[in-house]
Structure prediction request, 796 residues.
Amino acid sequence: MSDSFSNQLSDQIKQAVSEKRTLQITGNKTKVPLTEGAEEISLADNAGIVAYEPSELVVTVKSGTKLTDLKAILAERNQMLGFEPPDYGDSTIGGTYACALTGPSRPFRGVLRDFVLGTKMIDGRGQQLRFGGQMIKNVAGYDVSRMMAGSKGSMAVITELSLKVIPLVEEVTYCKEMPEDEAIILMNKMAGTTLPLSGCAYYEGYFYYRVFGEHAKQDAIQCDNSVWLTLNPFQPKLEAGQKLWRVDTEGPAPSIPNTIAVGMCGQRRWVVSDEAPAPYSTLWQSYFAPRHNDTAPISKIKAGLKQVFDPHNVFKPL
Amino acid sequence: MSVIQELIQTLPSGSVIADTEQCAPYECDGLSAYRQKPLAVVLPNNIEEVQAALRICKKHKTPVITRGSGTGLAGGALPHSDGIVLGLSKMNRILHIDHLARTAVLQPGVRNISVTQAVEPYGLYYAPDPSSQVACSIGGNVAENSGGVHCLKYGLTVHNVLSITVVNMEGDILVLDEKDDGIDLLALLNGSEGLLGVIVEVKVKLLPKPDTAQLVMAGFDSVTECADAVTSVLERGIIPAGLEMMDKFSIKAAEEYARVGYPLDAEALLLCEVDGSFDQVKVDTQRIAKILEKSGATTIKVSHNEAERIALWQGRKNAFPAVGRFSPDYYCMDGTIPRKRLAYVLEQIEKLSQKYELEVANVFHAGDGNLHPLILYDANKPGELEETEKFGAEILKLCLDVGGTITGEHGVGVEKLDSMCHQFATPELEIFHAIKGVFDDTELMNPGKAVPTLHRCAEVGQMHVHNNQLPFPELERF
Prediction:
């Protein structure tokens, strides 16, 4: 499985371990800048498609591949990524995976890790490892490939990913003016019907929903699909000192004061507040500032797993 | 005080079975070729009793084998001679249904099918449908990351679980949620085969029940043409809810058993079902029929109503017992392969069938590449089970050689430990053992399952040097 690039990374890691230095894993740095003085282990040049079989619904891609490039290649064969990742401009698939970022289609098609079938990675000893594969169904061994989604460069360098892809569909967006509370209930009621939905949101006084495939005529205004790009990634202009929180909650949960947008069928709320407005709140500054709400046994497990993959703490914790 | 005495003293009466006779029903799971009497069986009524039992077992260093309904096909719930079986069948209540949020909170012993039955009045259902769904439990489904015939469109268990509550050997409660930040422990626990924790509560995603479903059946003159037809359907952007293939032997067996009108002259049969809204299903069915016709189907039949659809499924759904009529016993394999290699793999399986002089029938979840060869054998003939297992191991090796995996949905258990040595190299296996150590440092949870020891793999390696002849089969392997 080793190639010269992986061998090179492996050597860089081993060298850093022996000299007790830490490394910050980076892609195109669209989400997190390089910390001042930190030594970089860059995946930006590790780009390209390794294998793509449209009829097997699987693509294997190097982690530094830009989302725009990957999406274009899939679109040529009428396919797409099911998790609709946000693109901060030149974002890579590896960085998206490391931050476990999923877009508006989440309630209908699932989260990023649902589409992960296999990974190649290099751990903190410089060992080249491979978990999962190219199969949609595979229950051999612990699911390290899915577990590592969201590891934010703290456990291993991801060099290659195999992802399930889905057919490209034409989508149409509709909108209706209504209060936030009503919109939240309505979007959840609609999600319980067979209308083929791929997005439900509330933004600036309007309930938006997106439909694909065959469907009946809608009693709503047809509007531009670009609202989903406005919400994904959601980057509103804030006044100085204002804090934006990403809150993950139950879809039909009541509205939270100072909400400026509701995404993912009510499962995601964007709230301006000084304090965390609810459990599962993330301060949305660096796109993924970690929460510190793990219970003691879970913190212990996470620390233990970090030691399994990175016993010398060569990867900079984020 | 012994572990049994302490369990009896601590837990309510009727929660501990220590009598050898009464323990008998727990001595195997769905893989009945392997049997072992446990030290005792503990049947807790609630989470607190699970915590208490685990703390006592930890203190006495007693292994714990968690069991749901015992329908697993890989021996994952096979007891340990010095351990207890922790049966979760009494924890079988549906705790909460939120029809607006489309979620249900379940105790681990809830049967898979009863979730769908309970939420039907709301027009909802629970998608993963392993063939054992009338009996298998939701806790076992999570532990095995169970699949079913609708996986391609609706995913495995891991795709349909939103959070789980787990108890570790210390008796601590861990709540793992899809909304958690950082590494995905919920995904890790799915399919961990009872080695990392005891699942005591599960919150699942519910989906709107499709308006309708329609089935297209097509017969083909060759396996290759049939597999190519599947490719054509998927390439044209249709994701069927079910996509099943059967080989000639299975077609014949199923037709003789169920008499549903399968074409007996066909070399391969395809069953392709679409579901969803009325409009979408109508369009998709017509497109599929055209694609299959162009792909060289010799017969095509489209279900025109629910009765016809159910009738056409009867053959496939009864394929296992139908094949079983031809033989006293059969052994079900679970490899997964890239679909483009199907014709080659079936050809090789046929050669192996001749080599071992054992017949084999093939049914195939064609959409996701999951192959279920059924090897026919007679357990009463000395040595035939062992030959069957060797045949099975060769099939799994074949699956790996074409880029597949040794298990798509049944799990490793005790059955596929040796095959794991082929699928994973030493560093990955070491990582697996280290992960286990983080959750269960004294290795008391389902020890010896799912991940082979490096020692065992070294022996498997030697076996290959000796042309697969098992050296000293009477010796214990660990």
Notes: The two ends of chain B are 30 Å apart (CA to CA).
